[in-house]
Every structure is written in structure tokens, then in C-alpha cells.
Design brief:
This protein is of the alpha+beta class and 144 residues long. It is built from 3 helices and 6 strands. Helix 1 packs parallel to helix 3 and helix 2 packs across helix 3.
Length: 144
């Protein structure tokens, strides 16, 4: 069975954060809809998201969550589509943030899979120079 490739979405220029953009990727909805599902109508100035926020947003958007958040030491250890909490690799200086959300979609044929990073214009394969995963939440994406 082939995996349906997700529709990549970049985080908008406003300060919505990477969490809502990841929810938009797995739900097929807009970033604004994801923000509303997470924070309601009262948007705060600081839109940092944590696991409880993402769970609330996923439920509000109708995305199935497959269990609880799990630890991950490598991209290869993530066996299903997931929202992944990751950090910079050692020595990286591009970003001030050490915490970041991405969506990961493994390759069923054993290949490296794809990382959907809302700060990048296109999905990419993990290559050892990318961010390192430390926990993930398996989800079942909604497709068109």
C-alpha cells in the first residue's frame, strides 16, 4: 500500500508558530483553522504550542491520534506518520529556536521518509544534518 503524500505548507509570515502549520499539514485544513482549533478565538501574542495544545487542535480538526507521544532517538525509529518534536543538531547555528515541530512521513519501502518542515519550502529526507527528533505523536492524516 502506497503512502499518500501530504500537502506541504509553510508557516505563514505572522507569528503563528510551527505547531499550527503542522496541524494544517496533517488535517488538510488552513493554518487559520488550525490556530482556532488550538487556541479558540482568543489568540494570545505568544502562540507556542506544546503536546496538550496539539492534542486539542488535532481533536478539533478531526485528526485521529494513534496513542500517546513517544520518545524517538532517530528518524528511522518513527514507523508511522507523526507530528515530531525536534531540536537542532549539534553545532547548528541557523535558528535561535532549539524546539521545533515538523511532520514526518516514513517511506513504506524502507527509504528515509520525508520531513515536512513548515519553515522550509519543500519536504526533504532526513540526512544527518537535519534536526534531531526527540518525541513524536503518531497521527492518521486526513486526505482530500
Amino acid at each position: 500500500m502506497a503512502i499518500h503524500r501530504l500537502k506541504h505548507m509553510m508557516q505563514s509570515n505572522r507569528s503563528s508558530g510551527c505547531g499550527p502549520a503542522c496541524l494544517a499539514i496533517v488535517s488538510g485544513r488552513s493554518e487559520d483553522e488550525a490556530i482556532k482549533a488550538i487556541f479558540g478565538d482568543g489568540r494570545s501574542k505568544e502562540l507556542r504550542t506544546y503536546w496538550p495544545d496539539l492534542n486539542r487542535g488535532l481533536m478539533g480538526l478531526g485528526v485521529s491520534v494513534n496513542g500517546r507521544a513517544r520518545r524517538a532517538g532517530s528518524w528511522k525509529s518513527i514507523k508511522s506518520t507523526a507530528i515530531v518534536a525536534c531540536g537542532r543538531i549539534k553545532g547548528a547555528t541557523r535558528s535561535k529556536d532549539k524546539w521545533h515541530w515538523v511532520v514526518f512521513q516514513p517511506n513504506e519501502s524502507g527509504g528515509p521518509g520525508l520531513i515536512y518542515d513548515p519553515l522550509r519550502s519543500d519536504p526533504y529526507e532526513p540526512d544527518g544534518r537535519t534536526r534531531k527528533p526527540f518525541s513524536y505523536l503518531p497521527v492518521t492524516p486526513i486526505h482530500d
